[in-house]
Amino acid sequence: xxxxxxxxxxxxxxxxxxxxxxxxxxxxxxxxxxxxxxxxxxxxxxxxxxxxxxxxxxxxxxxxxxxxxxxxxxxxxxxxxxxxxxxxxxxxxxxxxxxxxxxxxxxxxxxxxxxxxxxxxxxxxxxxxxxxxxxxxxxxxxxxxxxxxxxxxxxxxxxxxxxxxxxxxxxxxxxxxxxxxxxxxxxxxxxxxxxxxxxxxxxxxxxxxxxxxxxxxxxxxxxxxxxxxxxxxxxxxxxxxxxxxxxxxxxxxxxxxxxxxxxxxxxxxxxxxxxxxxxxxxxxxxxx
Length: 288
Known about the structure:
By secondary structure, the chain is of the alpha+beta class.
């Protein structure tokens, strides 16, 4: 909330549910050799100060994931190759959501202030300095990877950078049921788009009348007939079974009728592995 108070225009970079999750369900990084391993633990596992937090202060699930990433990086600071898969996944997510170099300093300042506010006397100067240095190194790595990935996506046939205007041209319930709906979108310029591949996701951005800009990730599906896959995408939208606060998916289903205009990121496979050659990703990143 520190960052959102100072920069409300950055709220859309985080999911609408960022501050809504039940803190008791937060998944916290297990201190293991696998940087992708997540285990159910108390939120105090991630923060030595969290024992003093009341329920309103404890982090949401996504806030915990953010802290996990930084904690994981610090844990493997002497063997960063173990963090490669996490860096790759974070890079892809940031590219889809439209996170850029200029956003990192705002997050860094907010995180440091949060540590000071929550930790109080326990937040020693050397801890803050170490955290700041680790965050700076991690930011530099991610920024470089994100720039590289944006260039790669733009060079692909039908590729682009950032968000591209699309219009919803079809909505239909999935035949298999399960609360799923298929939404088909057509590029506004009817120019070619990146070819669909199984397992890809896109982020959809739209302007909600109540919440402002919203960005939400959805799984691509083979374009439904009779629509042209050369300039159309179909996404799978699953209705939430929860009766909790309305999320981004429900808002898209409500407002995203045929003719509705929105913006779409280039498709990305979050789980695909990138061949980095003989050098490690860290060596390639810093030219060592």
